[in-house]
User: Which sequence fits this backbone?
């Protein structure tokens, strides 16, 4: 049946919304099941003629899902930019920051072993719609308005209706984005603790950040910073220009550039960036180099979300309905997790749709809901508690390397081994992931308090930018080796997860140790075995005076802690200062917190 035609009387699956979530789910169902699918969407025009869509960056979990699981690798390599990791930048105290060469940087030089991409969402969705509807098992109807869902109970069919049309189906999946058809109908909306907004826009041509510079072409070619930063084109990265509680993205697309400011409400007044003109003025004040470029660009499209983050009470049911993408839950675009969660949810939904036995389906939906909530909620402390750490390179380096090491092992690793729908593995996986929850929450509180303390300290002007390679943090470098651990059985995968969990627990101890060393201004803290062994990973209280007193009983001890990492990887950030030793105080929280 051609697009925008009349529906049949019955489909195995109706997907409400032909955006990224709905189109990728239909692609997965077509590849791995024999189900019939109806896609319905409010858009009548082809996606290329629709407003430009945000959410362009893939990371490793979604990169593997799109390229390998959905078998889009060749298409992506031909039509979209290969992505060069995530890179982060800060203005450098003491420099003018009117050229890229003045900015402090944190980055990974090595290209990812799992290909990731910068997506032109409109082009990708046009391609997916064409590919999906080229089969006789997937049909599309556009221009749909006033969608309603009468959910069948006890295994009965669902009735889907809209102005001028209706159909029945076995499964219905809401991928309507912020339309939230089923979520609104069933009253599933649930707030979270993230209050962030964003203003974003697209400009004509490539904003090549390395060329926003006061350097000549010859100086650009012979810049000695390249000894540390490497030669790969920086513009291919998702580039983040950071300040307290906010960041400005620069993402390359073919013939245009995506730009956007994301901010927490307590750091930026939404009215100060309520439109593109205001946002450009704000960005040029905050990161002065952009005044050389962005004000002279042609604006192609623009958008704004004042308060975009939201939760959901339930996203999958044995009554054969599900929600995916922004129709269900959304956290924040930092680290580009949206497509990751789409890939994970789609995999679990596909597994449920393949299941005919009611008892087995009920158990799969129970497990899928638990997995979906755990994966979503693991992001929340990072965005709700320690977003302010974006304002300091040292604090953010600790935060990001920790979070990325967790991500490589607990998001990417199960995806490349096709284990998200494997209940044998996931039961053991979730128990291990739960161990990290309290540790992560403790670290996020420590890091935020550490950043706020640093704001009270005298500024540290530099004569040149600070350059930091994230893989100098050994636990993160070792976590990347998990990308090569493919084709494992569930029991083999659990063994790998256990090894990674032990690595993460040591990494958490190191981060708390580094915070103490930085606050005390004493590098000896980083290797003091007695003190490091006394630290607890839960319930740690950030109190500089108590930290000084708490270290006093261990000061001067010479036994060296046996790390499996380099404890001096970030010692250049530590400002040595004399320490006034006080009477010992407990800084590790209550006995119950321990």
Assistant:
């Amino acid at each position: 049946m051609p697009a925008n035609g009349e529906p049949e009387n019955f489909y195995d699956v109706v997907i409400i919304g032909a955006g990224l979530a709905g189109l990728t789910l239909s692609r997965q169902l077509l590849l791995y099941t024999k189900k019939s699918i109806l896609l319905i969407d409010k858009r009548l025009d082809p996606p290329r003629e629709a407003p430009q869509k945000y959410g362009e960056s893939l990371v490793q979990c979604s990169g593997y899902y799109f390229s390998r699981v959905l078998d889009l690798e060749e298409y992506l390599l031909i039509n979209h930019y290969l992505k060069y990791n995530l890179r982060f930048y800060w203005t450098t105290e003491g420099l003018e920051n009117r050229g890229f060469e003045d900015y402090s940087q944190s980055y990974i030089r090595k290209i990812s072993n799992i290909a990731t991409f910068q997506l032109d969402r409109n082009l990708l969705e046009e391609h997916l719609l064409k590919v999906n509807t080229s089969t006789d098992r997937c049909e599309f109807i556009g221009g749909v308005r006033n969608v309603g869902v009468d959910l069948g109970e006890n295994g009965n069919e669902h009735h889907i209706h809209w102005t001028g049309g209706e159909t029945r189906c076995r499964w219905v999946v809401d991928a309507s984005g912020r339309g939230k058809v089923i979520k609104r109908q069933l009253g599933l909306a649930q707030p979270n603790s993230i209050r962030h907004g964003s203003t974003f826009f697209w400009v004509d041509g490539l904003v090549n950040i390395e060329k926003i510079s006061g350097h000549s072409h010859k100086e650009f070619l012979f810049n000695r910073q390249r000894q540390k930063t490497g030669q790969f084109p920086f513009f291919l990265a998702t580039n983040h220009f950071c300040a307290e509680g906010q960041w400005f993205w620069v993402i390359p697309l073919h013939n245009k550039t995506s730009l956007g400011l994301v901010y927490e409400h307590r750091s930026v007044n939404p009215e100060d960036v309520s439109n593109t003109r205001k946002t450009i003025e704000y960005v040029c004040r905050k990161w002065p180099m952009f005044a050389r470029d962005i004000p002279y660009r042609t604006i192609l499209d623009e958008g704004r979300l004042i308060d975009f983050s939201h939760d959901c009470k339930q996203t999958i049911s044995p009554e054969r309905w599900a929600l995916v993408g922004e129709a269900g839950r959304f956290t924040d675009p930092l680290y580009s997790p949206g497509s990751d969660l789409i890939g994970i949810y789609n995999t679990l939904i596909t597994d449920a749709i393949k299941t005919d036995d009611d008892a087995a389906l009920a158990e799969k939906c129970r497990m899928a809901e638990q997995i979906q909530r755990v994966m979503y909620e693991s992001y929340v402390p990072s965005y709700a508690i320690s977003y302010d750490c974006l304002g300091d390179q040292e604090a953010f380096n600790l935060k990001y390397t920790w979070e990325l090491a967790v991500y490589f092992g607990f998001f990417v690793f199960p995806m490349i081994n096709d284990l998200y729908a494997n209940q044998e593995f996931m039961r053991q996986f979730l128990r291990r992931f739960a161990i990290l929850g309290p540790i992560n929450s403790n670290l996020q509180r420590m890091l935020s308090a550490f950043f706020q303390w640093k704001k009270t300290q005298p500024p540290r002007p530099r004569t040149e930018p600070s350059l930091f390679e994230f893989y100098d943090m050994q636990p993160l470098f070792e976590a990347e080796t998990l990308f090569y651990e493919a084709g494992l059985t569930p029991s083999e995968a659990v063994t790998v997860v256990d090894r990674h969990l032990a690595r993460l627990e040591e990494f958490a101890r190191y981060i708390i140790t580094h915070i103490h060393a930085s606050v005390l201004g004493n590098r000896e803290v980083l290797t003091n075995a007695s003190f490091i062994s006394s630290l607890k990973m839960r319930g740690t209280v950030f109190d500089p005076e108590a930290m000084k007193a708490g270290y006093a009983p261990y000061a001067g001890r010479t036994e060296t802690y046996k790390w499996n990492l380099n404890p001096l990887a970030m010692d250049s950030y530590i400002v040595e200062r004399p320490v006034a030793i006080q009477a010992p105080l407990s800084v590790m929280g209550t006995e119950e917190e321990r």
